[in-house]
Amino acid sequence: MNFGENMESNVDFHIQDEAERLLKEIDLVMKNVENSKFYAGMHLDLKQNETMQKHFFRLLGSHSHVQVVIYGLGSIEYSFHSQFQLAVVLLLKRDFSDWIDSIVIYDPNMSLADIIVFKKLDLEVLTIDENCKRRAQRPTMFYMPDTYCYHIGNLLGANWTSSCLNRICLLTNSFRDRLTNTPRSGPDLEAAIRLERILPFTTEIDIKLIDSPMYANLFSGFAWHFFDVDTNIDIGKPGCYWLDIQRNLEEEFLEDMKSNMTSEEFAEIWGISRGFRRLRCNNVRPPPGWIKLNIYGIGRKGDQPGQYSGIFQDEKGTCLVRYKGDFDVEDNVIAGLEALRLGLARCVEGKPNAEKLIVESDDLTLVQYVNGRPEPNEKAMDKLKEIFVLLESITCATVHYIYEEANEAARELALSDECLSNA
């Protein structure tokens, strides 16, 4: 018999048959889990651990049951690990039916056979990917056995009020461990910041791993998480998370300044990132070991010639050098690039001696050109070629975008009648 042709001729039969076989496998796996020391420890904790009982009593409030929501289980058709992880929550529902009433499940990797099995096990299968952003309307236990950290961030963010957080609990990897191992950047940034903020209000009870290496591997670092946020604390106050993001970006910036990053690496960052608001709005002193150059350029308008300027200052905010001049060009970007070229030329000559240089400009197009995006026009490219050659003579240089108010001194200097030498 050609098995491949046979499958193609009756797909529905094979899916149904696979589901029936999966149900038998789940039954066997549940017996295995039920007889394990691992599950016996979980069961005992739920029955006798006073701390857990206190938190579940508070979680339930006036309700009689909690709903269970499963995210990140994977596919039981393709993974034995997923079968064991599902067995745990099925046993909890069976053994603690006095406080668990229903289970909702979603995973993007669910197969058609998985869905059939879940429904036969009396689980509600979600058809829309909530991206772990379900807002709890009733006491809810979230079981998240194999999720990315940003999924935890999504869940916390969706319930980011004291009332919502106090009506949920999570059975997932330890928040403490996640925070230690999660980079404060990229898609995990929100999760890291929310974990850091919620930890003081979190009771974390570790799952005891006293069984075989398989259970230790499957449930390593698992813990119950209960929240007790004082209702007088407005954890969801608009702006709190935004401020956390800003502070994190500032800390990242300062750490980058202490590192041995190259000019090219900084250009990669600042060609994409706008940075943090305090830097864009204020004349912030450069970190120790760095010198800052603020540049400004404006093209010719009518009888007013094009003008440019530059101001160097050290980490103490002391002005080291100022320069300005006229430039016969209409394009503001070209005038600004001339200001940058002359400033870099001074650094190469040691006037001032800037091994590490921060350049700030309120011309967004100029900053993007210098950092490699977008594609500059022909006139700008001619200037940039000179600038890139000069940059090679400086140990490290980084070019940032700031707002006009943070660049006021350079602007006023360029537009003033003050006479300065460019030599």
TrEMBL record:
Q: Where is the RNase H type-1 domain?
A: 300-414
Q: Which InterPro entries match?
A: RNase_H-like_dom_plant, RNaseH_domain, RNaseH_sf, SRR1-like, SRR1L
SRR1-like domain residues: 60-226
Give any Pfam family that matches: SRR1
Question: What name does UniProt use for this protein?
Answer: RNase H type-1 domain-containing protein
